[in-house]
Amino acid sequence: MYNGAACDYLDFLRQTSGFLPPDATPFLRPVTAEHIILIGAMGVGKSSVGRKLAKKLNRPFYDSDQVIEEKTGVDIATIFEYEGEAGFRLREEKAIGELCRRQAMVLATGGGAVLAAPSRNLLMTHGTVIYLKASIDMLFKRTRHSNHRPLLNVPDKRRAIAELLEQREPLYLQTADHTIDTDRRTVSWTANRVLQLLDLTTES
Ligand code: S3P
Q: Within a domain: residue 23?
C-alpha cells in the first residue's frame, strides 16, 4: 500500500540527481489559463464529468492518465510494473506541467495527482480546482469490477480505498477551490453543479 514513500522518493530524486521539473517554482508564475481541473479518488467519475463539462463549454478535454499512456505507448499498469509508483508520479508531474501550459481546458487528473507538491501548486495556480468527493462505499461500488488500477489490485479493495482516502482527503481539500459531493448524483447533475459554482451556466 502506498504510504508516502513515492513522494519522498521524488524529493530525493530532485535533491540528488538535479532533476527539477520546469514548473518547480510555480508560485513565481502567474496564472496563465483558467482551466477547470477535476481532482478526486479513483472511480469518482472525473473523466465522465470532465468530458460532459468540456462538451457543454466547447472546450478541449484532457485526462492526464490518457496523456501519459499516449506519450509512453503503454498503459498505466505497465508503467507501475516497470517503473514503480515513483516512476509513474514523475511522469504524472511532467504531464500535468505540460497540460497546464495549454489553452483553457477541462482537465481530469489521476487520483494521486495531488500527492506531489509541485503538481498541487501547478493545479492551484492554473485554474479552478474542483474536488469530486464520494464515500468509500460509492468508490468501492464504482471500482470493484475494474482491474486496470494497480493500487486497487489488492485482495481487500475496500480497505485500500479507505486508506488512500484517509491519506489524500486533506490534500484534495487543500488543493480544491470547491468540493462537490457526488454520492447518488448523476454525471449530468455534477457537471451542471460545476457550471453553477463557476458561474458558467449561460455558456452551456
Ligand atoms: C491513481 C489513479 C489512477 C491512475 C493511477 C494511480 C491513484 O487514475 O492515475 O492508477 O494513485 O489514485 P484514476 O483516478 O483516473 O483512476
A: no
Take atom 4 of ligand 1 and give the residue whose Cα is closest. 110
Residue 3 CA to residue 110 CA, distance in Å, equals 17
Query: Between helices 76-100 and 117-125, what is the axis angle to 10°?
Result: 40
- What is the CATH classification number for the domain harbouring 162? 3.40.50.300
Residue with cell 492526464: 64
Whose C-alpha lies nearest to ligand 1, atom 10? 149
76 CB less than 6 Å from ligand 1? yes
Tell me, in angstroms, the distance from the centre of ligand 1 to residue 93's CA: 13
Tens digit of each residue's pLDDT (9 = 90 or more) over 37-46: 999 999 999 9
Does 29 map to a domain? no
Question: How many residues does this entry show for the chain?
Answer: 204
Angle between helices 64-72 and 76-100 (to 10 degrees): 110
- The model carries a pTM of 0.85
Whether residue 30 has pLDDT greater than 50: no
199 occurs within a structural domain: yes
Number of domains in the chain: 1
d(CA 83, CA 81): 6
